[in-house]
Amino acid sequence: xxxxxxxxxxxxxxxxxxxxxKEGYEIYPVSFAYGQRxxxxxxxxxxxxxxxxxxxxxxxxxxxxxxxxxxxxADIDVPDGDEVREDIPVTYVPARNxxxxxxxxxxxxxxxxxxxxIGVNAVDYSGYPDCRPEFIQRFQQLADYSTRAATQDKKKIxxxxxxxxxSKAEIIKLGVAxxxxxxxxxxxxxxxxxxxxxxxxxxxxxRGFREAGYPDPIPYDxx
Length: 223
Known about the structure:
- This protein has helices spanning 11-22, 40-51, 96-111, 133-143, 148-151, 168-178, 200-212; strands at 2-6, 26-33, 58-61, 115-117, 158-160.
- By secondary structure, it is α/β, with parallel strands linked by helices.
- Strands 3-2-1-4-5 form a five-stranded parallel beta sheet, with helices on both faces.
- Helix 1 packs across helix 6 and helix 6 packs across helix 7 (200-212).
């Protein structure tokens, strides 16, 4: 059995891939060089893919920086994190998960894969609309009508979101239990050799490790 895994090189996607492997799938990770402000994500994704000895690690280049509108793809400063923010932050990349899942769906059809795994989370996250269960449900409905596999061959490709209802601490505990290489991951939006420790993603990660009772294995500025 084959499964496509969206692998960003981050904590959540790496734990998600560990779940797919644990569930017995031959994993085919796909990562994206989408014009993000740094290449640390893709470099970490390569290391994670190598750790799992995958048959193929597909890296797709696309130019979301041409659209802009995000601190991750345009000349906009990455803000320090705000754990009580209620609005969608400027680090949101317009339509990113919709685009990535569309690529993954096509790849899964070519591979004759049964599932797509994506590490979206709707508990400890930055409020992105394309991480919510409602989005995944609607994408699944679209997927069921948009491929030859589903419409002609009656092979629906299922989108799996094993982390969607877990806290960051629960995700970390799951990753540790599965032997996921958390030390190879990155979460920092600023993309330095050491994580900044102050952006939204770093704050969520650090809090998760504290609550899980494990030390974070990656280096941070000033530590």
